Amino acid sequence: MFKKILVPVDGSLHSERALEKAIGIAKKFNSKITLLHVYSTNLVLLPKEYAVPESTPEIVAISREIGANILACAEIRTKAEKVQVDTLLERGHTVKVIIDLCKEGKFDLIVIGARGLSKIKEILLGSVSQGVVRHAACPVLIVK
Questions:
Q1: Which of 45, 110, 115, 118 is packed most tightly, with the most Cβ within 10 A?
Q2: Phi and psi for 32 in degrees, rounded to 5?
Q3: Tens of each residue's pLDDT in the chain, 144 residues
Q4: Structure pTM?
Q5: What is the 3-state secondary structure (H, E, C) of the chain?
Q6: Angle at CA 45, nearest 5°, toward 39 and 47?
Q7: 139 half-sphere exposure, CB direction, 13 A CA radius
Q8: 26: which residues sit within 8 A by CB, 6+ positions away?
């Protein structure tokens, strides 16, 4: 039923719980998990006096390194449970990358952590999990 599971990870407690749930599902259905970390170098939320151009090589390198570390930890955890796993590190808008990858990779399920954003932040920024649910081409499991 769920042969290919996409699990976006960001290092948060919510994404750790989502990975736990995905591992359980993968064991039950003999599925393969693809771990995805999407990093962004968009600093528009910082006050103007702190804003750095998005293309700053140092910002990109730091963001990639953090993302690679998050993926490595999640991969170790998944392999320890004897579940097949791939990893992807992508740069861009998180919802768009997840949705595009879901379609291109023909995933059967997305398991994603919920976010505890306040209503004001949610209105201003939008929620990744909400965006994924709205646009995904496959079932989405949101884990609190």
A1: 110
A2: -110, 135
A3: 899 999 999 999 999 999 999 999 999 999 999 999 998 766 555 555 555 555 678 888 888 999 999 999 999 999 999 999 999 999 998 999 999 999 999 999 999 998 744 444 454 445 888 899 999 999 999 998
A4: 0.85
A5: CCCEEEEECCCCHHHHHHHHHHHHHHHHHCCEEEEEEEECCCCCCCCHHHCCCCCCHHHHHHHHHHHHHHHHHHHHHHHHCCCEEEEEEEECCHHHHHHHHHHHHCCCEEEEECCCCCHHHHHHHCCHHHHHHHHCCCCEEEEC
A6: 135
A7: 9
A8: 2, 5, 32, 33, 83, 84
Which residues are CB-contacts of 102 (< 8 A; sequence separation ≥ 6)? 6, 110, 136, 137, 138
Chain Cα centroid distance, residue 31: 18
CA 11 – CA 37 distance, rounded (Å): 9
